[in-house]
Amino acid sequence: MSIDISNNIVYYILIIFGELLIVLVFIHMVYKKRTPASMTAWLLSMILVPYIGVLLYLIFGLRKRENRYKKKAIILQKHTQSFYKQNPVHDILRSYGIADASENEKFELFTDSIKAYEKFMSCIEDSKTSIYLSTYIFEYDDVSKEIIKALIKKAKDGVKVKILIDSLGSIGLYFSQYKLRELRESGVKVEFFMPIFQMPFRNYINLRNHRKIYIFDDKKVISGGMNISSEYFGPNIDKARWDDMLFFSEGTSAELFFEIFASDWFYASQENMSFVKNSAPNSGDTFLQVVPSGPDMSKDILYEALLCAIYSAKERIWIVTPYFIPDNSIIQALIIAKHKGIDVKLITPKDSQNIIVNLTRSSYMRELEEVGVEVALYNGALLHAKAILFDETSAMLGSVNFDNRSLFLNYEVATFVYSVKVIEDIEFWMNKLLLYSSAGTKEVSVPRKILENLMRIIAPQL
């Protein structure tokens, strides 16, 4: 009898404790002004699996870092330039302290994986003083082995080489770091961003460094969506390789990319870095505005700039993204844009290679189709590129996917381009994608549509 009473007491204590945890988490979400959709998703998970749901929230639900171990906010120095044309996006970014658009004398767009690889390797080979690489995925394969050989050679020649790798994105290499022994012995410094086990109090496993920043001699920059892996680029044709994009720039914007890399590097290594300014005057007609996003920014600057760009558009909004899971504000902005007569296009992979993403995105794509938005499903290899065209005035490139994870959780970097020539090149590339795409989502059964709509509940957590 006494055993039954003890079991009942323990049972009720666990129930009360679980309910208290849910209440405390709910208070935290209210205090943090989380959206109703996000709160609903998390509360539902905590009701269905009480203790596990709370644990998942503590691991995956926290966004802006709050403890004393958090990464310091990035403050990009204001580079005053004679910006050639006023743009609403440019102006709103400036109001948040983002550096002005800066001149670049050279800019190249690479949508061919072989040419992208050749440019990457030529930048390494031509480097005289420094090479700084930041990537989400560093896969140890035939392509990266050639890159490692080139970096070892440069390090032995006296070039400073630093590599920053996300520990979760490159978890295979993180657990087999013996593969980097020769690289490190040659003088190359390698750090893993938020090591999974070495930073128990600093590490938020949900907040990953998704930035791709490759800097050479403090003046040349390669950025975009390609990680260091044969899955993204290489010297030979590979039919299984993803379709992606990199861009190369040379000019004033190199310092802005450096400031982001230096901030991430200091957080991972506690080592300060200094930028060597180019004494030659910069000139050019390609203006770039570099925008970091993530937990090291006090506000959701990129998200607000994206909304501003959508509402400010007058002619077109063309979106290329591998993952399309927007929040309600963005989906409504796109619907309003279509009602205003703006040409809105979405180009995304036919298969995202993730069943949960496929189910969740379908509801949003059907909602856009209902108002006449053109949804094009790319039939080639997985489309991993990220780009948005706004009218004839600006484009957004970088590492940012069109989903909650990129816009609100991960460390990301976007680049707004203000150049007629570059915009024409991006438009040409997007039109090529459309040639290899099928129009619209296919008709599905009512139960399938209900399931897709239900998946919106978990969208804030993806």
TrEMBL record:
PANTHER family: CARDIOLIPIN SYNTHASE (PTHR21248), PHOSPHOLIPASE D (PTHR21248:SF22). Residues 205-232, 379-406 form the PLD phosphodiesterase domain. Its main location: membrane. This is PLDc N-terminal domain-containing protein. It is found in: Cell membrane. The keyword Zinc-finger does not apply. PROSITE patterns: PLD. One of its GO terms (biological process) is cardiolipin biosynthetic process. GO terms for molecular function: phosphatidyltransferase activity. InterPro entries: CLS_N, PLD-like_dom, PLipase_D/transphosphatidylase. It holds the Pfam family PLDc_N. The chain crosses the membrane at residues 9-30, 42-62. It comes from Candidatus Sulfurimonas marisnigri. The keyword DNA-binding does not apply. It is a multi-pass membrane protein. It comes from the Bacteria. One of its GO terms (cellular component) is plasma membrane. Keywords: Cell membrane, Membrane, Transmembrane, Transmembrane helix.
